[in-house]
Amino acid sequence: MTMIAGPIASTTSGEVAGGDDGRVTVWKGIRYGEPPTGAARWAAPRAAREWEGTAGATSFGAAAPQPVNRVMPLGDGVRTDEDCLFLNVWRRSDAAEDRPVMVWLHGGAYTFGAASQAVYDGTSLVTAGDVVLVTINYRLGALGFLDLRSVDGGEDAEPNPALRDVLLALRWVQDNIRAFGGDPDRVTLFGESAGGGLVTALLATPSAAGLFHRAIAESSPASSMYGGTRAATVAARFAREVGASTLEEMRALPVAAIVAAASRVYDAVPREYPGTLAFAPVVDGDLLPEHPITVLSEGRGLPVPLIIGTNRDEATLFRYMNSPLMPIGADAIAQMFATMREEQPELPSPSREQVLAAYAKVKRKALGLGIARDIGFRMPTVWLAAGHASAAPTYLYRFDHSTPVMTLSGIGAAHGAELGYVWGTLDAGAGPAFRLGGRRTAERISTRMQRRWTEFANGRPPGEDWPAYDTRSRSSLVIAKHDRIVADVDASLRAGWGDTVLAFR
User: Fold this and answer.
1) Neighbours of 392 (CB within 10 A)
2) CB 199 within 8 A of CB 217
3) With contact defined as beta carbons under 8 Å apart, do 237 and 265 qualify?
4) Contact criterion met (CB below 8 Å) for 212 and 304
5) Cβ–Cβ contacts within 10 Å for residue 482, how many?
6) CB 450 within 8 A of CB 125
7) What pLDDT score does 1 carry?
8) In the chain, fewer beta carbons within 10 Å around the N or the C end?
9) Are 149 and 159 in contact (CB under 8 A)?
């Protein structure tokens, strides 16, 4: 359908005019923060200043600067720019006031992606669930996650710029969402991959209290967040790559030089230290006082209800893309374990024999994929769910579905496979997914997932058949052609990995 002039909404910075196609009203490219450029680079974001007149809001704002990634197109006509602090609001055209709000944080290894990607078209989600949807751009890569306090002049840098961007956007939601039909007292924060990691980080961020009331974390790398020592090592490597030694020099660099240097660091760090990321939230002792996996596994996170889960075959996509982000080879896995033991010598860690026992029924060629999946995604999720269940109702899932062609290809229910089902955008980037059929089954699964996610956002349990997780029954929802509840679906994994929380520091 063609968009026509939509309602004008009044925000704390000024009026914005969106578009309406008869099904949904959308405001795109609303500025929530001033450009984080020049002296504001690696600083806390500032709220958008007031503007005069009515700002047009019918096209997406710029995405954060990032390397070109052909498998992750940012959307038609979307450019990248350091001035990237924009958000978008979707709602049903006939929506009543005070609808529950869902705020989305996109994934992309903390380095790629944008809210404008086709898979995040909100039409299906807001019409199926009658929610108001907000999707956010935030700073990425070195610009969003580099901690430069260790460099000369770094006392003027703020750690965790991207996390601060999200907090600013959540405050914008609190101040403005009523003008778009949303209820600021019913905000669900949800995200996938790096976006899921930001969700779990914010659950351990004291200053986020009251900014969201429910959370959904899809495939969160919850343990892949690091402390000051590792952050300083990455900062030093980045400084060498850009040929600058002071914060002032780095702030004067062209953004293209920063993106290029960050790309080299992004590739080098996980190759040198398997299982780690160059760019991720930093445990800075202030905004993020403690490691989120520790806080959440001990039940000390923000006491908001949580849906959390992973996909059955998380690691296959990384192997297919030849990505360095997940340690799949035997040598890389051994090095990863050695590093974790060095960083946490006081904690008992499972022996090699214990871990391998959990994969007794796994074919040898798939062993590395299983171990990488579980230490990177599944076990941190299980540890987190067990702890957070003592703080608030927590619902654990595993997404197992794959279409016939994805099953035959060996990719299966890979990392990110659930996105099209949650958003109802099964054709966005689907490629050959339905070449051998499976479309009708996928549509039914999508309908169920959307109902569960939006019921949860409405303040209700995500389905009468899905019990909250507890450490007695450990019930999980397995999402497949037919959803089913499985008691302790992770029993063999827990027996192998144990209950000690393993993470890099």
Assistant:
1) 17
2) yes
3) yes
4) yes
5) 11
6) yes
7) 45
8) N
9) yes
Mean pLDDT of 213-242: 95
CA distances in angstroms from 189 to 68, 196, 212, 216, 406, listed in the order given = 28, 9, 6, 6, 30
Instruction: Say which residues have a Cβ less than 8 Å from residue 254's Cβ, sequence separation at least 6.
Output: none
Alpha helices by DSSP H, listed for 209-254, are 228-242, 247-251
Cβ neighbour number for residue 412 with a 10 Å cutoff: 20
With the C-alpha atoms ordered 504, 284, 43, 216, is the resulting torsion angle positive or negative?
positive
Which two three-digit tokens encode residue 191?
Answer: 């995200």
pTM assigned to the model? 0.95
Between CA 231 and CA 243, with CA 237 as vertex, the angle to 5 degrees is 130
Q: Locate the DSSP E strands across 298-448.
A: 306-311, 394-399
d(CA 125, CA 91): 9
Tokens of 148: 């430069």
Burial class of residue 445 in the structure, from the number of CB atoms within 10 Å of its CB (0-12 exposed, 13-18 middle, 19+ buried): buried
Sequential DSSP letters for 414-466: BTTTTHHHHHT-TTTT-TTTTTTS-HHHHHHHHHHHHHHHHHHHTTS-S-TT-
Is residue 375 within 8 A of residue 336, CB to CB? The reply is yes
Rounded to 5 degrees, φ, ψ at 24 are: -130, 150
C-alpha pair distances (Å), 338 with each of 277, 323, 389: 17, 21, 31
**HEC assignment per residue over 404-420:** HHHHHHCCCCECCCCHH
Write the pLDDT tens digit of every residue in 442-501: 999 999 999 999 999 999 999 999 999 999 999 999 999 999 999 999 999 998 888 878
Residue positions annotated with a catalytic role: 193, 314, 415
Handedness of CA 100, 101, 107, 110 (dihedral sign): negative
Mean pLDDT on 232-255: 96
What dihedral do alpha carbons 224, 144, 332, 243 form, nearest 10°?
-140
Token match 């599944």: residue?
378
What's the whole-number mean pLDDT along residues 294-319? 94
Distance between CA atoms of residues 446 and 452, nearest Å: 10
